[in-house]
Amino acid sequence: MGDVHYDFADETAVVTGGASGIGRSIALEFAEADATVIVADQRADPKDPDADLPTHETIEEAGGTAEFVETDVSDPEQVRSVVEAAREYGGVDVMVNNAGVFVGGSFTEYDADDLDTGYGVNVRGMFVGTQAAASDMLDRGVEGSIVNTASISSNLAQHGQVAYDTTKGALRMLTRGAALELAEEGIRVNATAPGQIATEFTENGTESTQERAGDGEFLKPIPMGRAGFPKDVADATLYLASDAAAYTTGELLAVDGGWQIC
């Protein structure tokens, strides 16, 4: 199959949670497509063990333009500050609301404070990010694109994940509702729905999900017969943000190797 190349020259992309994992891969691919990238995260240092430099420095080393903005997306003022930072480069053309947290546990024993944390990041953070980016686009009169990182949990209930599933279900409707309201302004809002993605960072201080993928743990239930990787989600994100998806909005694009069809 042929290679795909996207051109985001003269555009600015904001990627929340861009320091590590899926967010890092998304940020690096936007940079490869010549976008200016604003990396918004709580820390610049990546969790990925094979990453020598922070995402924004990696982009700069390759000759691109990037900036890191320390951001807690559960704080609306900090999210709006990221959008303001993008104004220094012309404003937001692409907003990728990627930062998220996993909130798991038994439904009957779940702590309400942890639930609030999950909603603060996964729902409020993405709501404010979508709102702030759309406001910037409207102020500047540009037809931009917003892509949220949702999950297969946006559609599927899974054991021990009631709290997480509800946050991602809310994100699905946030994406659709915002897409409906913003369509007439030429602003598209879509989301990716990753399945089991083998990110680089370790889980619970033990073996990484990459190592688990190598052992075949992720292969058994996936029809396509391989683990998903951050680049798979990044590729889908750039597609949704690009002119190739110019007639697509309100879509939840599964990136799961067929997980949801079996």
Provide structural commentary.
- Strand 4, helix 4 and strand 5 form a beta-alpha-beta unit.
- The relative contact order is 0.15.
- This protein is α/β, with parallel strands linked by helices and 262 residues long.
- The radius of gyration is 17 Å and the shape is globular.
- The chain has a 7-stranded parallel sheet, sandwiched between helices.
- It contains 7 helices and 7 strands.
Order of helices and strands: EHEHEHEHEHEHHE
Low-confidence stretches: 201-212
N- and C-termini, Cα separation:
26 Å
Number of helices: 7
Q: Please identify the oligomeric state.
A: single chain
User: What percentage of the residues does DSSP assign to strands (E)?
Assistant: 5-15%
State the shape.
globular
- Computed over alpha carbons, the radius of gyration is 17 Å
Main β-sheet description: 7 strands, parallel
Total strand segments? 7
Please bin the fraction of helical residues: 25-40%
Q: Biggest sheet: strands side by side, in what order?
A: 3-2-1-4-5-6-7
Mean pLDDT: 91
Structural class of the secondary elements?
Answer: alpha/beta
Main attributes of the structure:
7 helices; alpha/beta; seven-stranded parallel β-sheet; single chain; 262 residues
